[in-house]
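Hi R.,

Here are the chain sequences for the assembly we discussed:
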Amino acid sequence: MSTVHRFRTMGCDAAVAADDPATVVEVLERWEETFSLFRPESELSRVNRSRAHVLAVSPLFAQALEVALGVAAETDGLVDPTLCGRSPEVVLSERVLSRPPGLALDLNGVVKALAVDAAAATLEQPGFVSVGGDLAVRGPVDVALPAGGAIRVVEGGLATSGTASRGAHLVDPRTGRSAESRWEQVTASGATCLGADVAAKVGFLLGERGPEWLDERGIPGRFVSAGGEIVENDAWATATRAVPACT
Amino acid sequence: MKENSRIQGARRRARAAKAGVGALAAVVFGVAFVGAKIHAPGHTKGKATPLGAPASFEHKVRQSVVQGGQIAPAVQPPPVASSTS
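And here is the predicted structure of the full complex:
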């Protein structure tokens, strides 16, 4: 595997193992430029400032928003780009966005993971892209886990969601307030980094029902409670069970 | 008399021709009507169905976003960590 390069992007620590890290950085920067809520000139900031009911957006913006709306539908609004359960009022047709003026969009629920997937797609050799602990791999990569331990990500992505590092920053669209959960950190394995990230968020927000929700979809999940208790759902336990060597 | 019978004959033939043409028109109309009923796409033959993709297909496509990845026991010291950001 290539040398690991570490830097900061999208407000997070990033690690990249790639033959051409400059290309990966370029892809991540393009996503950050478009979707940062902290850059007044980002496209997302401009869309949120606009009082127009209907406006044209860039292809990248339309792609991310389409994914975000699909995720909101699939998770019954648990991961919602309006953060308040109003995603059905947002309509996207090709590159034309229609939404009630003043209804702000927050694509943080999907953008970082989408950016990681997009950056990982540029890898031509075995390696990985990790931003803020959300990871996509090309070829097997061993990954350290919250509260100790490690696993090998063979294919796809891995993501952790929760309140361990930034406190209660996740908003529960059902209440519009900071999410409260039995779990402090939830790690999920997905076919993509996006899938892993969405699964980890839903697992966190659903609390007790999280492990079951992930199992119903065959998604491995590992749940760490505030007290340090570690719960692995069936899919995780099965996948990481060491197979005894033949004698 | 002879002239009268010729006129009557002509009237009979004319009536027969009119009846023939009318019957033929009725048959053509009937066949076209039944054909349209069966084949014309705009014709209502039963309950209307939505033109969008079936729900099962949409569910399948949407399902692809949240799918499990492949993991296994670690075998080397990890070069990277997964954590909340």
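The interface with chain A takes residues 62-85 of chain B (CB under 8 Å). The mean pLDDT of chain B is 80.

Let me know if anything looks off.

Best,
T.
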